[in-house]
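Exercise 7. Predict the joint structure of the components listed below.
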Amino acid sequence: MKSARRKIIALAMVLVLALTFALAGCSSSSDKKITIGSKDFTENTVLGEIFAQLIEAKTNLKVERKLSMGGTFVNFEAIKNGQIDIYPEYTGTALTAQLKMDVLNDPDETYRIVSEEFDKQFNIKWLKPLGLNNTYTLAVTNEVYEKYGIETFSDLAAISENLIFGAEHEFFDRPDGFDGLVETYGMKFKGEPKKMNVSLKYQAIGNGEIDVTDAFATDGQIMQYNLKILKDDKLFFPPYYAAPIIRKETLEKHPELEEVLNSLAGLLDDATMTELNYKVDVQNQDIKAVAQEFLKGKGLI
Amino acid sequence: MSNLAQYIIEHLFIVLIATGISVAIGVVLGIISYWLRFAAQIILWFSETIQTVPALALLAILMVIFGLGNATIIAGLTLYALLPIVRNTYTGLTSVPAPIKEAARGMGMSKLQRLFLVELPLAFPLIFSGIKISVVNSLSIAVMGVLIGAGGLGFPIYRGIQTQNFRLIMSGALPVVVMAVLFDYLMSLIQKRLTKH
Amino acid sequence: MNFIEFVSRNRAVILSSLVQHIYLVCVSVFAGILVSIPAGILLSRHRKIADKILAVVGIVQTIPGLVMLGFALLLFGVGNTPALVVLSVYSILPILRNTYTGLTEVQPGLIEAGYGIGMTSSQLLFKVQLPLALPSIISGIRISTVYIVSWAALAALIGAGGLGDLIWTGLSTYNTNYILAGAIPSAILAFLFSGLIGAVQRLATPRGLKEVKHDE
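Solution:
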């Protein structure tokens, strides 16, 4: 049965091909390449892109981008197991979400602790803070603000039963998140909180699906949707100073990265970052272009 | 636009590898089900059960085992591809008419010889049909890979959703649908030619 | 925290997610039925275009769930509405195809006989064709339902809630407990629905109609 044999050979060839593909796919990691990750919201992606372009310009390393990969923990796992070498992290997040320690309010103390612990526990180094403090905060629509005349989180708590709360899924499983917030302030929102992809919060508040959301202080959409930011009067949220974090292993192989990334220290304050975010989210400019414009403007590339 | 080509290649790569692995495993499982009828129940039940687990849930669980990235989506696609392949292999083999099996036995063939020289070739069209279904399904499901850190066309789609950019969504969706339709059409043609013999 | 502890601690949110999930599934499948069965009947009367229409619907089915959600998001915004629209569209194909096949596979002899004893077209439909097609239709509903239970997990991304909320929270924070708390109930739900509808299907199958099990 010649045709039978032919068919079996064909099948075998397909399998061999697939296996070859598989083995080829496990590409050897080049020593001259580093990978930069980022969380899947605009600011973090912009920061990641800025790191990438700076490194490409100032060193002879090749940069692979794995931007907008997922939430905090996705990136954290990835950097721990070497899938990425660098990503932008926030001190407050690191303190409460990754180190699972209690909230602190002193920015310098927070930075000191996360630096020490990440070094000790995970072999990850914190480079110099970029300047911005992208804290969690609460935002309400202008209507709500006018109607209830609220200024602080405590004010909000008093009338919270009239409002629907919405946030990204991650917010509901973090110590510096929903549960802690609600407990500290005694908030009790209407119905079940709505959970959705981080990029959709503002659309939801814009069309009235939700009344209150956890905003990131430097989000461009706050301006766009004319939202009011409330004051964290009991100082529930820790400071969230952003900085590049890098695997020490990578730093040892390429020590020049430290100086390159530290050249960004203090250059990205709240106002600057908000503006960059606004350009991407509201004016729909391309992230690569925005990052490039920023770096050129600061004379870095 | 070169980005798009990269996504398409990644996407195909993931689907083809997963298909390759599931063919290898699926056909073997199908053969085992054919030879050991009691195993057939278990194997078929297992394959059917996987289908009922929601894709997102399965991928989430696999992610904990395989970590982020392509390995997880390939594992997930392989599992989802099992049922059509296993079931069709099993049905194909059991549908070989008894007189033919008798004749083969009469000619002095061993069980293995009968399998490779008679039964598998006759079952091939149906097996191929199962592979076709797997490939078409996998092309679509592979999009979810982006949610657990894998590459492929899911990435522009997801970014498009996040930035509410219709064109970006389409740039990912269109290749997926085109590939699905193309593979389905081409493989159906091949299947018809195989059945003609 | 071990899983059992986790479940009992969070049973309120798990339960409400489950209820929302069931709601999404039931409404979309019901909507799918409302569209598919009349459409299937119509197609069975116009067989020439039926193939083409089924092919088109088949192509829609290959559009990944994430993409459909994206489109619905652009059209309807965030919340239950876009999710229900997408899920309803997805539930159509299996029911439509099985309604069509069920009706067209009724033996011509029976149709002849029906006309012979003076039945009108609609009497024929309701007294002969539909009852005979019922097992096939119910099978289509079963396939749809299991399919939708699975895809409804994505609805959480656009704020429609459901068990996907738990899975997605777990994915965001690498928390296996949350992932399992969403995954296990959805698998069980799919099983239950499949079993229940399967039982109804067996009740509706007249003796003598057999099913040949393979995928074509």
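Discussion. The interface with chain B takes residues 59, 62-67, 69-71, 73-74, 146, 149-154, 157, 163-164, 167-168, 170-171, 174, 176, 179-180, 182-183, 186-187, 190-191, 194, 213-216 of chain C (CB under 8 Å).
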